[in-house]
Amino acid sequence: MMESGVPSLQVKSYPRGRSITELEVMQFLSSQRNSGSAAQAFFYLREPDFLGSVPEAWRADFVAESEDAQLRMADLKGHLGQHPGVASVSRYSCQWGGMAQGRPYVKGLEEFGARVLQDLWGALQRQFLQAESEPPGGEEEEGQELQDAFQDFQQRQFCARGKLLGAVAGRVREGRPPRRGAGGGLYVVTGAPGDGKTVFMAALARELSAHPPAQDTSPTRCLVVSHFTGARPDQASARVVLRQLCARLSRLLGQTAPPPASYRGLVCCLESLLPAVAGLLRGAQRLAVLLDGADQIHGDSGQPVSDWLPARLPPRVSLVLSIGEGARLLHSLQRRADTVVIPLGSLDPCDQAGLVRRDLALYGKKLEETAFNNQMRLVLMKRGARQPLYLALLTQDLRAFTIYEKVSERIQTLPPALPALLQHMLGCLEQEHGAEPVAIAVAALWASKDGLLERDLLAVLTMWRELGGAPVTWEGGMAAGGRAATIPKAPIYSLMRSLRGLAGVCGAPSEAPGSRLHLCGAPLRTAVERRYLKEPGLERAAHALIAAHLWKLCDPDVSRSFQGSEAGPLAALPYHLVCAGRPDLLGSLLTDLRFVAAHVRLGLLPVLGQAYALHAGSAQPPGEVGAFRAMLQAGAALLSQNPALLAQLAANAPDGSSLGTQARALAPPGGRLLLWRNKAQEAPDPDSIALALPTSPTCVAVSPCGRQAAVGSTDGTLHLLDMQSGQELKTLLSGGAGISACVFLADGTLCLGTSTGGLETWGLRSAGRRCLAGGVAVPSLAWLGDAVLAGGSGDGTLRGWALASRSACPLWELRWHKGAVLGLAASPQLLASASEDFTVCLWLAETLRRALPDPPPAPLAVLRGHTAAVTCCAFSANGQHLATGGRDKTLLCWDVGDPAPGAPPLWRSLPFCHRDWLTGCVWVGPLLLSCSSDGTVRLWDPASGQQLREFLPHCGPVSAVLATAGHVLALGRDGTLAAWDMQGVELTRFPAHPGLVNQGAGFVGADGDFMVATAGGNGRVQLWRPLEFGRPQTLAGHSAPVCGAAVSPAAARVLTVSGDGAVRGWAAPWQTGCAEGPGWHRGAVSALAWSPDGTLAVSGGECGELIVWGEAKALATVQAGSRSVCALGFASSSRLLVAPAAGSICLWGLHSDRTTGALSLQCKRRLGEVAAPVTCMGPAGDPDSLVLGLANGEVLLFEAHRPALKPLCSVSPGPRGPYSPEYLFDVAVTPDGRLLLWKGVREPTLYELIHSAKVSALHCCGDVLVTAALDGDVKIWEHVTGRLLLLAVGDNLGNVYFLEWACLRGAEAEP
Q1: pLDDT tens per residue, range 339-380
Q2: Radius of gyration over alpha carbons of the chain, in Å?
Q3: Which residue, 822, 1109, 1165, 1295, has most beta carbons within 10 Å?
Q4: Where does each WD repeat begin and end (predicted)?
Q5: d(CA 838, CA 504)
Q6: Sheet containing 946-951, strands listed edge to edge, beginning at the edge strand earlier in sequence
């Protein structure tokens, strides 16, 4: 006998002679104990001295009728005082009041009434108000309470399929694996919508949690962890599901740490927790994880995900899923060896009748089952009676039907199938409440993604009633509210109560206080779509009303300040505005800095990014929205850590938008903003894709068609993007801990490499993964035709895979080499593999294009001739010769034109052709190019064995050499790109990046020119035309090192990923061109100096260039040398002292052309070299004099009339030379960031740390001291004078910033 939904009191066993009132009291207390809720019962007992004021004639009306009754009352009072469900048992005083209308009454109850009111209000506060004000951090506890309440509600509906429930529970308890040798078991409960899968899963969870039946002698007990995706719309999110499961499993282990935040982290956490919990099981214990609605679980993009499912379950762990019939996940799981499918099927007649009897009995009703009037048979003859949901809806209709004589007729008229019955139920709602109110209400519930709170639905319906039949618009909804108090609320509450009842029958709990109303289950949502959403304009009207209501919640005082806004309305408002057909209103919000500030303050930057993407997807032109979006994307990482810097960031946005004006209004009164004088005046248009990546991206690839892109990350997550809309299509999880590289093999097939050495291919349409290699690095790859890929591994293994459009099948595996395979080369006839074991193996390519027999064949030939590891190999264009190079500094050429067993003849040997290891070789017709770690590139004639020429060497190792169109190009590991003609004449040489190049590739652009793309650690991707010797086109916008780039000629776009978490798509620079920034340095800015009158500034870079600035614009540029500029100083308005990192200190003259006014710099004389690099320069007090500080502690004096520098003193530790008081420093800093001040004394005063890293710049500007350090901070010390202060700041990206303080609203403030 399954328990019903009514908590029962065992009346038969209760003592006889008790009153109905006592039974009602005990019934309530019993229900409180069963529900586990807090005590909510208050009992008030009259003071016994009251009887002294009652006349004798009326005293019998106030005392017990007998001694036995008096004893029962005393017993009840004592029981109440000890019951845990009773919140309070107290006494109250009163007095005899006399007679009124022939009946006695009491008075003096004012204090009693006040106490009752106080107790009730306190209970309401504890249950509703205080629960809402609990501090955040109990998200898992709140979710668990929701899940427990939902499971309790669902399991009370179960009264059928008892045999199936027992069989499934028994099998899970026993833990028998479905296949021999398997670990745990995977059980899939499947059925059509309305078959009762959720109710069955809830009953199974209860059954497994209970102790086994008495006849079962095994001590088996299950630990049950369950999750129901239908408990609330957000409970189907993959992050929510995994977070709840991980929290429950952690509690079983006694762990209190919160689950990870990222999706990948949650998946890994689940995979580690399952075996950990399994290891704690004792005896015959089992762990059962139940997940209802597994096919409804979706990722952040809304797409179904299933990659969180463990590939193998630990022993004694069972995973039970419920999945709808026909779901793609079901077909995928049926291919697993450990899967057991449990179809629910139709209810048998006995279960059908039992369900109807139980539901009607709850309300004191039943159907006739006599031979002459068998109403039950009429019900069971319905086609839909085999589904529990159909019977639940039918009984709900019958219990509300009040004409007993026409029940049989009513049953016959009810629709026979579930979809038609749902339409009938909606029609009944319309008859009771009106067609239009019901249509608006259900349309609003359908339009809301996460359902609506009762207050929200009440506000929507009130606005609609106040409009009084006028067309529903957003403007009308915003204007409504003035007559809200006059709108009758009783009809609206009645409608909401009916909707909650219908939703409860379809699976949503109806008694949870404060729960959201939502259309639970696919059958109900489908019925609403078919009945109402065909009506033109209804869906848009519902969105408009919801948008107006949410707007009022976000801006309650209608001031557009959004100060008191909550996170929920802010996040939902953009979606409803777009669906209401008002992207213009969304655009007005997205260009309101106060609306943006509300998101930043609440930590909703990813949500705001989605709002900008929504606006971009509409037909509305971007306009000023683009400037706001670019500003937020550039500063997303900064704002997430420092929300208060929003006004500062907006104030320095390019002109042409209202950002600057709004920033001044947003800043606090009396505050100051630091303005960027020479900022770029054109807003960058990178068309960035907004992604909230929890970890840094590592690589990016674009599909051949240009419509999709894939981004890999350090946590092993692969994000698939749509190149047009910028939206994330789906998220996949690789088998490794991180993704190091990815490439599209075809439009639907992706190949990726993992950080653990694995190689995987993915069929993106089926989201299927196949591991090609794993466990070791794959340093070399080569194609054998169009469909076979060969790879060499770090363990010496060669592997081959046959690649189709959607899958990759392993073809063969050859274990021949005894060291890592460092190079592969393929010709139409042969495959060559170069190894760390000093050998090169030749394999017949035709044999490797198909599966190999077991055992696999030996190589066709083994080339032995190198005396160290072989690092590279290359076939000539005609396949006649093979060149191999190695760490023995030798280049060997083999004659392989006639493949045959046995070693081919050695055609040419070039021993010691380089001074260090060979790193690459490539054929140029009959000639051979080689490059080496010695920094050289050499051209050889193998026929004669002669070196034809050596190209001018690099400063460091050469990592790659490339020949194209009669030119030779080489990329050094230091980032230098060089090009020569075939005669050895150097055409160009330049640092592609100031530091290491992370990635480089050559390709032919749309105009046919050869281009090289380099991505470096300075946050930029640069495209070069090295054969045209032009400056690079710079794509500036990333705020961290670029770690990957991909070019899509089909889409005419460049995609880049960076450590700042941003994925940016750029229009093809070869089509649109890129505007260069003003006065870019090629490397980091290493020195800055102001002229004495403050009109000019000069900046020096680490590549040796000098740039003269005036009014924040670059006026002249000159190359001062090849070394970094360490320090600069103006001796006068026309004389500049330049100190390089190495070499002579020079005096430069600044001249102005009398005709054009153009400025120029000329070196006037050299002052000689110094013992250590110059770290700083400063005025010496006399005109045309400077003081120089050296890294070794020496101090030198420059005077214009002296030909050399004069030593002054030493401030380094140890013996010190004599001080010259007139040349002492006023202020200095130590390398660790401490401040030193001299105030007319010989020993300085040491202050505490002023920066957290080395101070890189120090300047005195009047009574203001400015310091800058490697921690990224620029600080201003002492009090700022009333004048504006102009600063010049250089960074490691080659930018020079001219900054000034802007005083807001005329108020003085400390900086």
Answers
A1: 899 999 888 888 888 888 888 887 778 888 888 888 888 888
A2: 40
A3: 1109
A4: 814-843, 863-896, 925-950, 1035-1066, 1081-1109
A5: 75
A6: 918-924, 927-932, 937-941, 946-951
